[in-house]
Amino acid sequence: MIRMEQRTLGRTGRDVSVVGQGTWQLGGDWGEVREADAFAVLDAAVESGVTFFDTADVYGDGRSEQLIGRYLKERQDADVFVATKMGRRTEQLPANYVLDNFRAWNDRSRANLGVDTLDLVQLHCPPTAVYSSDAVYDALDTLVAEQKISAYAVSVETCAEALTAIARPGVASVQIILNPFRLKPLDEVLPAAVEAGVGIIARVPLASGLLSGKYTADTVFAPDDHRTYNRHGEAFDQGETFSGVDYATGVSAATEFAGLAPAGVTPAQTALRWVIQQPGVTSVIPGARSVEQAVANASAAALPPLPESTLQAVRDLYDRRIRAQVHARW
What we know:
- The structure is a single chain.
- It contains twelve helices and ten strands.
- It is an alpha/beta fold.
- An eight-stranded parallel β-sheet has the order 3-4-5-6-7-8-9-10. Strands 1-2 form a two-stranded antiparallel ribbon.
């Protein structure tokens, strides 16, 4: 296996690879993926130095967790830290975020993953009021005491939610959308996380593939791909699809971004390298549906840092093409 840079994931105290493996694609919502193909992707990630998998109980209604569980049972030599999420399989009401439900959801995830104790459980973009509830954190502390989970964290939609969670002493990490088309977390969230010792997991780092530079205005996605059915937030938060950027705007801006890639480096790797070098980021979790994608993503960890001129060009592109649209929504 290749050795990749490791960073401590906030208050978990555990080290994880700076490039992790997001597994939403393996569960569903991006088109069908065969089990053998999913195992090949996970294996390629591990061989490339990835020691961190991110999943959720709602990805394929548990299929992603099950695939990871079966893979790690077969691959006993793989030292992988697995973060899952809970809360999106029920009606999104603060009243549903209670201990009994947490226990039931965690029992299902533990069975799916084939473990007695979950490494990390993240509240999966719950209603905003949940982040301020003392009872919610008391319930999560109870799960830690019962050794159902080793640590807990949150996955958020907004910077305000992230800052509320960071202020809680038991929150180990915050997962947030961060990429060259979503710069807002750089201003307050990342500095606050560093000061509090909270890890940052950067999700949607390629803006649902936009930043790969492979899509055009005429690209058609499968009907069961969220890039078709959630383009305007029809099924869940719009920010999870193309980072909430209008598709036509995103394609045009992605073409410009591709021009910033260093020689021999793909636009996708450039976007991942940009995330990796943001102060406070612990790990970035691109998804992959092929071995080639998994290997290319992981290789971004070994690239040299982008020069200051490129970082400024990213900021300029964001300010000119993206800021007004994204900030109007968040």
